[in-house]
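Justification of resources, computational component.

The compute hours requested in this renewal are based largely on the per-chain cost of generating structure records like the one below. Each record pairs the submitted sequence with a full structure-token output. That output is archived, and it is also reused by downstream analysis tasks.
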Amino acid sequence: MSDGKGWISAAWRESECACGEDLKKLRHRVDQLERDNDVLVRKLKNSIDDCRALGKQAEEVQEKVTRLEVIGQTKGFNCRVLVRYGISVDLSYQDDGRTLKVFLKEGE
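The structure output for this chain reads:
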């Protein structure tokens, strides 16, 4: 004699199969996102290292420079526009690196 609950257990098993497939898809997607995240983290760390290296180079240049020469190289014009000795410089990059400002100071 059936207790009438057989259809419930069959429906439950079918539901478990469908959920199991969805769960597999979700796990696969999570794994892919974790791999993508690892790649992005490595790229970010490399970018930060590159920025630190460039910053260090800029500091070394700023400490070492005692002369500034600006050379004009345009059509019909090829000469020194500005020459200053015994100076120190501060460099400032602005506008997402599109603008370089050079601040001249008396030599230290």
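The first strand starts at residue 67 and ends at 74. The first helix runs from residue 6 to 64.
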